[in-house]
Write a structure and sequence with these properties.
It is a single chain. By secondary structure, the chain is an alpha/beta fold. The chain has two domains: 16-257, Type I PLP-dependent aspartate aminotransferase-like (Major domain) (Aspartate Aminotransferase, domain 2, 3-Layer(aba) Sandwich), CATH 3.40.640; 259-378, Aspartate Aminotransferase, domain 1 (Alpha-Beta Complex), CATH 3.90.1150. It contains 13 helices and 15 strands. It has helices at 16-22, 34-49, 62-71, 87-98, 116-125, 147-155, 206-214, 224-231, 242-258, 260-280, 306-317, 343-359, 368-378; strands at 5-6, 55-58, 79-84, 102-107, 129-135, 137-138, 143-144, 161-165, 184-188, 200-204, 284-285, 295-299, 319-320, 322-323, 332-336. Strand 3, helix 4 (87-98) and strand 4 form a beta-alpha-beta unit. Helix 2 (34-49) crosses helix 9 (242-258) and helix 10 (260-280) packs antiparallel against helix 13 (368-378). The chain starts with a strand and ends with a helix.
């Protein structure tokens, strides 16, 4: 028998309480009983996003939210500034070009965080830029960008909005949507929100809504204004993912019980313990910039194929992690520590990694990384 463990950066494990909530008998989304449920999750999402603004709920993956964050705010020919420091920064560029935007890219070496001064300089050079697109946590490299600093910069540009992909950030570390001036923030259900894939969430500031009023791109399904008008009446424009919303109701109860500070502290402790355990085992963290508390990218040791590590974790020990993408394929592997995970998942991940490396012929002292993590995870 091989027990399976999910330590990939999405989908992540779903708590039993949430699975049970989703297994409740189906209700009709236009029936009166749906109204208070939808109202509760709408208010809960405002709390989670730390915003007074509406948070739209979309039946899609996170990329649907990203697409809407382009089509609803930019017109063909509008200028967009894209921070491209990984596969998902690259996706922002592709989405903007799909909708006819003129894209200026700040290319950031993979593994590094963007220098906010580069963004400030780009906006000063071209005040016609309508939107800045960035990742709070670049999943492909396990690095964060300083969206707080970027928010302060963009606040000073009255005709420019800041759009943040927080798909592997929200619910992992502190993101003060309103206080930091984050105009559009997107996340997905299958990350720190501990749900299956299928929902995207988007918060929109008043500044962004003003830009949306002028946008000339057309969108039928991902029409944010139509969704806002409906969701303010506790309805959706189209058929929602009802069972997922029931699960979300339970997730928000769990997160409220722990409190945002408790959630962030737990995630930070696990991320720190994994990174230090990796170092103690003789491996190197890939991140040169600020590492993400959602996922850790680890350099494959010299002479060892990172894809072999990723594959053997799954085949030998039942652990689904993630490999490197694009030019990092075979050079790194990634372990998630967000969502429904605890201290023993970190210990498990380190123990299995040491065993895989040993099996691949790499000299590693079994238990060294585990011991370091245990010390850190015992600390209150």
């Amino acid at each position: 028998m091989l027990k399976r463990y999910l330590l990939a950066p999405g989908p992540t494990p779903v708590p039993p309480e949430v699975l049970l909530a989703m297994a409740r008998p189906m209700i009709h989304h236009r029936a009166p009983e749906f109204d208070p449920i939808f109202q509760e999750v709408r208010e809960g999402l405002k709390w989670l996003f730390q915003t007074r603004n509406d948070v739209l709920i979309l039946a899609s993956s996170g990329t649907g939210g990203m697409e809407g964050a382009v089509s609803n705010f930019l017109s063909p020919g509008d200028k967009a500034l894209v921070i491209n420091g990984g596969k998902f920064g690259e996706r922002w560029g592709k989405l903007c070009k799909t909708f006819g935007a003129q894209v200026t890219e700040i290319k950031v070496e993979w593994g590094h965080s963007v220098d906010p001064k580069q963004v400030a300089d780009a906006l000063k050079k071209d005040p016609a830029i309508k939107a800045v697109y960035v990742q709070a946590s670049e999943t492909s490299t396990a690095v964060t960008h300083d969206v707080k600093a970027l928010g302060q910069i963009v606040k000073g540009c009255p005709e420019t909005i800041l759009v943040v992909d927080a798909i592997t950030a929200l619910g992992v570390f502190d993101l003060k949507t309103d206080a930091w001036g984050l105009d559009v923030v997107i996340t997905g259900s299958q990350k720190a929100l501990m749900l299956p894939p299928g929902l995207a969430f988007v918060s929109v500031s008043e500044k962004a809504w003003q830009l949306a009023e002028k946008a000339k791109n057309t969108s039928f399904y991902f029409n944010f204004k139509r969704e806002k008008d409906n969701q303010q009446k506790n309805q959706t424009a189209f058929t929602p993912a009802v069972s997922m919303i029931l699960g979300l109701q339970e997730v928000l109860k769990m997160l409220r019980a722990e409190g945002l500070d408790g959630v962030f502290a737990r995630q930070a402790q696990m991320a720190h313990a994994l990174r230090e355990g990796v170092k103690a085992a003789g491996m190197e963290i890939f991140a040169k910039g600020t590492p993400s508390d959602a996922v850790t990218a680890i350099n494959a040791p010299a002479g060892v194929d990172g894809q072999a590590i990723y594959k053997n974790l799954r085949v030998q020990y039942g652990i689904t992690a993630a490999g490197g993408q694009d030019h990092l394929k075979g050079k790194i592997f990634r372990l998630s520590h967000m969502g429904y995970l605890d201290r023993f998942d970190v210990i498990l991940a380190l123990a299995a990694t040491e065993m895989v490396l040993k099996g691949l012929g790499h000299p590693v002292t079994l238990g060294k990384g585990v011991a370091k993590a245990q010390e850190l995870l015992m600390a209150k």
